[in-house]
Amino acid sequence: QVQLVESGGGLVQAGGSLRLSCAASGSIFSNNLMGWYRQAPGKQRELVATIRSTGSTNYADSVKERFTVSRNARKRVYLQMNSLKPDDTAVYYCHVKEIYGMREYDYWGQGTQVTVSS
């Protein structure tokens, strides 16, 4: 069983930066996808950025050129957020997907609040 714990959220002014970190415990299959989603009040959870075990990345259009996702071996994933905007305010969730051929298993962290003031 994979458990995820996020840290690094907080309150920041528009234009500022934050770095989120997610630590995974337990065994993670080598073929996996790690990343971040967010959910703002009254909105659906949306993808922010992902990074595969191969190193390839994917970003939401709204965060391209401002956010950078990275990972450390197989156990920790980061999200560097620069030039933050009030629209980035949300609860940010760490996510891990293990991929076993046609089968996939999803794990979620408890979330960390990011608030960007104008």
Give an overview of the whole structure.
- With 118 residues, the chain is mostly beta strands.
- Helix content is 0%, strand content 59%.
- The protein is built from no helices and eleven strands.
- Strands 2, 4, 5, 6, 9, 10 and 11 form a seven-stranded mixed sheet that branches.
- Strand 5 (46-52) and strand 6 (57-59) form a beta hairpin.
- It is elongated, with a radius of gyration of 14 Å.
- It starts with a strand and ends with a strand.
Brief overview:
The chain has 118 residues and is mainly beta. It contains no helices and 11 strands.
Question: Can you give keywords for this protein?
Answer:
single chain; 118 residues; 7-stranded mixed β-sheet; 11 strands
Beta fraction of the residues?
A: over 45%
Output the structural class: mainly beta
- Give the overall silhouette: elongated
* Average pLDDT, all residues: 95
Order of helices and strands: EEEEEEEEEEE
Task: List the total number of helices.
Answer: 0
Helix content: under 10%
Gyration radius (Cα, Å) is 14 Å
Uncertain segments are none
For the secondary structure, the number of strands is 11
Q: CA-to-CA gap between the ends?
A: 40 Å
The description of the largest β-sheet is: 7 strands, mixed
List the helices and strands and how they pair.
Elements: E1 3-7, E2 10-13, E3 18-25, E4 32-39, E5 46-52, E6 57-59, E7 67-72, E8 76-81, E9 90-100, E10 103-108, E11 112-117
